[in-house]
Amino acid sequence: MTRRIKLVVPEEVVVKILARLSLTSITRFISVCKEWKSIINSDYFRDQYESLNTSSSVSWSIMSTRNQTFALEIVGHHGCQRWGLKSSLGSYMHYKSDTPLRKTCVLSCTDGIVLLYTETIEGAPMYHVGNPLLQQWVQIPLPPHLTVFDVVRLQENMFFSDTGLVTKMEKGIVVGYKVVWMLVSWVVSTKLTFMIYSSETGVWKTENVRCNRSMIWSRLKYSVPLNGILHWLSSIGSDIDANYIVSYDFYNGVDDVCRTIPFPDFQEYQQARCFKRTITTSAGFVVYCNIFSDNGGRTIMVWRLISTDDHPKAWQLSWKLNPICKFDADYFPVVMHPLNYEIIYLWSRNKNALMSLNLRTYMYSLRKKLSPEEKVKKSMDGCIMRFSGCKEYMDLIYPIFANAIYGGVHDLYFSQYVLPRWLNPLPHRAS
């Protein structure tokens, strides 16, 4: 009779082995046994992993929102060591439904969590919050006082937005989230109504808030989340372009008043601005960047939001690069690098390429969409950058960004999806 020998691996050895793997591999070991799951979920193991992977990059993507004409993922940055993904993040942006779907849209992304909108063949709307990488999805029920028909009617209202998603973080892990719908009564108003679904309670609630000044609400369709706060573009006076940001803190708000912050170039650079205003996030800040005419040349300026006070000093001018015309190309700003505040991405209309520009060193590189026969080259951080319909997408939004074409409103056209630096399972929804 053969005796079976049970091999006991010391916990210290298990920690050292697992800490050298990618997060994708580590997620598979969670299901091996309870002991390994307990080790991986411990603060000690996380600290060990971080100490060995302090400099490794993470994957991120620029996602198209609502637009069904172009690919879901405009720019994909993947293959980084920390997660070890072989495919771009856009390939994970799907929900396996038992019901046939005619539409899938990314509404918002924050802290590795995604708000996904889908429609059935019959046109019934559905909202899901999930972690695409782990394929964990939860359907968000519609507000109990609204029928499916009511929701469809709201979506047709230009003063309604269903794109809000904010998270509650503890030690770098999402422990809760809120889905936020926003409604105003008219194009000019001081009052806003929020319909808020919380994962911690599992129910919807309605909140009425106000602004200290009348705002023009023509840009509600998209919001920018950061640290539990939503930011919208708005304006005052007769300026067609956005000249204010409206923000509200859904986890630490102490009153029923929204914050209103003027853009830093509202007065000083008003006539020199080349493109309509938009905002993005980078390295933990809301960021505004634009290009300005300057004595026949063009200057790129980047501010980051450091306060929610109603004053231009709420912004800090971080970069001023003059001139950029030496690059011999027609560029317009697209997005800041979500993790590296020194890097901005601009689209070159005459070269049909995305330019990565380091604002500190002035070094730049041009990247074009590759044909199937061309070999993919890795970036300086060892990751792969891919494009899908990028030229067509940029050609579409350029006239809307351009200051010369002042008709029509300006919306945010993309959402940044950045993988977290640690395992981020979807918080359990309250039953």
Automatic annotation (TrEMBL):
Q: Which CDD domains match?
A: F-box_AtFBW1-like
Extract the SUPFAM superfamilies matched here. F-box domain (SSF81383)
InterPro entries recorded: At3g26010-like (IPR055290), Beta-prop_At3g26010-like (IPR056592), F-box-like_dom_sf (IPR036047), F-box_dom (IPR001810)
One short Pfam name that applies is b-prop_At3g26010-like
SMART domains given in the database record? FBOX
The residue ranges of the F-box domain are 3-52
What is the protein name stated in its UniProt record?
A: F-box domain-containing protein
Q: Which organism is it from?
A: Arabidopsis arenosa
List the top taxonomic levels of the source: Eukaryota, Viridiplantae, Streptophyta, Embryophyta, Tracheophyta
